[in-house]
Amino acid sequence: MNIFKSQLFLIIAILIVVFACNRKPAEVKDGGTRIMKGLYSYGPELKSFTECEEGNEYWVADSAKTLELAYNNLNFEKPYEPVYIEVECHALKSDSLSMSADFDSTLVVTKLLKITKEIPDGPCN
Q1: Spatial distance between the Cα atoms of 1 and 3, rounded to a whole number of angstroms
Q2: How far apart are CA 13 and CA 7, in angstroms?
Q3: Res 30: pLDDT
């Protein structure tokens, strides 16, 4: 019986490693910059991004100063309407003393690649 438990544990451990290794990571560009796709919401109190693939949520810092402008140019009647975006970015640990403290990481957007009101079906395709 102990041999069976040991073998079962080993099989489960191998499966966990295989699934973890086969997970599709975000595309990484030079210098740790990644291309990420997801839903962005913006308003006076909140700037958030939810990644399509894993569903991770991030506070957003717009270092390129184009994301917030593009969002505002979509002319929403009220804030916090989600939009689909594709961005070049990198993630940092959130500052524990700011609004971003509610999020584990801050997504620093370096380049806006796409923004649209049309949200794709499924996990953002």
Answers
A1: 5
A2: 10
A3: 47
